[in-house]
Amino acid sequence: MEKNGKDSGVLAMAACYQGFDPAAYLQYNYTPPRADFGRTDSIVPWKLACLHRAFTEGDVSGELLVDIGSGPTLYQVLSGCEVFKKVLLTDFLEVNRQELRRWLQDEGGCNMDWTPYLQHVCKLEGRRASEWTEKAAKLRQVITDVLPVDVHRPLPMASGALPSAGADCLVSCFCLESVSPDLATFTKALGHIGRLLRPGGHLLLIGALGESYYFGGPGVKIPVVPLNEEQVCASLKESGFTLIRLEVYTLPQDMRVGVDDVTGVFFVKAKKD
Ligand SMILES: C[S@@+](CC[C@H](N)C(=O)[O-])C[C@H]1O[C@@H](n2cnc3c(N)ncnc32)[C@H](O)[C@@H]1O
Ligand SMILES: O=S(=O)(c1ccc2c(c1)CN[C@@H](CF)C2)N1CCSCC1
């Protein structure tokens, strides 16, 4: 149902996000015990390996990488920052953009220590883990801005934010399905972000499978559109993408704690037609 040109479900979703708590979100999803580098079956090394392979296997190139719906996290560009000269982070909420800027300015006050993630990706790159400080410096050098984004707008970013040709590569993690009230809106949002990408550019998409809600803070229950692999593939095709690779991780039972009801995670590498 439309209201002033905005779907009521999208408006309701935006209202849910007003309670989003970056510090709590980071604690729920990116710190032990859920985020555990020590376990061989952990999701975190799996995600970082998917991203590392996708960025470094030789077909991804260009000047500009844009992360859509960054939230308060930057693991998603730890490999990409070595491939692109310029990286833009984006989010809908100022609280998340502020969290990212605090890390970039390296003046303290951050709610997350990304060192284990930096060290892990250094090892994936064949470097010593102790080179994480160089990688942090590289990140701070190539991430040139943290900008607003709304994937429900036909043009999700301000005009002039990107070159007229578009970005060379997009990455987006756990965003579209967690901001869309239904599958049709998810697919439409995928099409919107596709317009930010040049033809032939790559999309790296990580998302939740079978998830219907998550907590974005204490008592902040946010609905998620439950997806399966077939729906993800169909939405990509409908939105003008050619699938290159789909990988799926099934969450071990003990990782299914109360912060969400995610059952699996997908990784997609695709190319804009
Ligand atoms: C589940 S978090 C994902 C954060 C991060 N990318 C990660 O991998 O954990 C979803 C993010 O989408 C953002 N968001 C909410 N509404 C949005 C919209 N309409 N367009 C783009 N991002 C939105 C939220 O602020 C939040 O940071
Ligand atoms: O990296 S995850 O797969 C992950 C990471 C982030 C999120 C989810 C899952 C599922 N809910 C999302 C809400 F949109 C956010 N992970 C889940 C297992 S424990 C460590 C975190």
TrEMBL record:
A GO cellular component annotation in the UniProt record: cytosol
Residues binding S-adenosyl-L-methionine, per UniProt: Y25, Y30, G69, S70, Y75, D91, N96
Pfam family, one: NNMT_PNMT_TEMT
GO terms under biological process: methylation
MF terms (GO), sorted A to Z: phenylethanolamine N-methyltransferase activity
Keyword check for Amino-acid biosynthesis: no
Domain of life of the native organism: Eukaryota
UniProtKB keywords: Methyltransferase, S-adenosyl-L-methionine, Transferase
Similarity remark: Belongs to the class I-like SAM-binding methyltransferase superfamily. NNMT/PNMT/TEMT family.
Listed name of the protein: Phenylethanolamine N-methyltransferase
